[in-house]
Design a protein that fits this description.
Length: about 230
């Protein structure tokens, strides 16, 4: 069985190849290690091996591992479904909340951030596949949400995030990744206060190579680093 360090090296090599194919270099891509269900000691091992950002899906698990110093030396991202009753536990704790998808969440994050006298960095999650079982703003409502966010104090949008439908076929995966990239490029041409769209987070262990080739500059990789859950 490969060590976490070996797995990270392999993932970074794959990222470098995919980045080259898209006319970029490996340094243009942020690797977020998704550590859902993995214990604090494995997270610390990943950080020691050079991981600069850790992603967590569950607030309770994140809180427990943070108390054990699991994320020391790395940025902390929240990448799971964001519930309104969990907002206060994330604002000011996470360096980046990747799954903001509604005006209500924007409002709550902004209110909490203002009370803490900080600005919270977020990504807007887009339901690019329009799947009813998934969260995320629909593409046709993204402009409206960004316009609302622009008027909300305490929050700063750094980009977009998506969990597209998964297919075994690379070409079908890239169809949705390409749609997200086109949306990303379109939003970057527009001017909103509190919005500086520069991050496009998409692609996981089975699809991050395709996502990078389609334009992603942030990928969330779990099992390819930590092993199967």
């Amino acid at each position: 069985m490969n060590s976490i360090s070996d797995n990270i090296k392999t993932v970074r090599e794959t990222i470098a190849k995919a980045a080259t194919l898209s006319g970029r270099c490996a340094d243009d891509i942020t690797l977020v290690a998704a550590s859902k269900t993995k214990p604090a000691e494995l997270v610390r091992e990943a950080v020691r091996a050079g991981i600069a950002a850790i992603g967590e899906n569950r607030v309770q698990e994140m809180t427990e591992k943070r108390g054990l110093g699991a994320y020391d030396g790395a940025d902390l991202h929240f990448i799971g479904h964001l519930q309104t009753n969990k907002v206060n536990k994330l604002v000011g704790v996470c360096d980046l909340i990747e799954t903001v998808s509604s005006k209500k969440l924007v409002e709550m994050i902004g209110t909490r951030a203002v009370s803490l006298e900080i600005t919270q960095n977020v990504l807007i999650e887009v339901n690019i596949g329009k799947e009813p079982q998934k969260s995320g703003v629909l593409p046709e409502h993204l402009d409206e949400l960004l316009a609302f966010t622009a008027q909300t104090k305490g929050i700063n949008v750094l980009g977009l995030m998506a969990i597209p439908p998964f297919f075994e076929n690379s070409e079908r995966n890239c169809y949705y990744f390409d749609m997200m990239y086109n949306l990303f490029v379109d939003i970057r041409t527009k001017k909103y206060d509190n919005v500086s769209v520069r991050l496009l987070s998409m692609g996981m262990s089975d699809t991050y190579e395709d996502a990078i080739r389609s334009g992603a500059n942030m990928v969330r990789v779990g099992s390819a680093i930590f092993g199967a859950r």
